[in-house]
Amino acid sequence: MFTHIMIGSNDLERAKSFYDATFVALGGNPGEMDARGRLIYVHEGGRLMITTPIDGKPATAANGGTIGIAAASQDHVLAWHAAGIAHGGTAIESPPAERPNGAFVAYLRDPDRNKLTARTKPTK
Fold first, then answer.
1. 3-state secondary structure (DSSP) of residue 16
2. Residue 102: which CATH number?
3. What values do phi and psi take at 111, rounded to 5?
């Protein structure tokens, strides 16, 4: 359904440090900067792009929005969460835990306050 997700950042260098660490923790690769100055992450068919806003105004986090990132295992979710905290993210919601549907889930806010979740596939 989606081709990509684009989010804004007020500090691309800080965003790269955070997202490189969290995607590497999931078994992915560091992001690459494209010719237009956007960070691009490609992982398991998904594409996340991070840019400074085109309109020149400050980037803000979506109120009520969450970006979900697939993880292969509970260990990957925990590594993602730890890497995010170590690179400027903030733990939010409940601690990493299994949900009633069997998915293992963790939540973070990135340094620009975007809400993220890493989760395994449901087992029930």
1. helix
2. 3.10.180.10
3. -60, -20
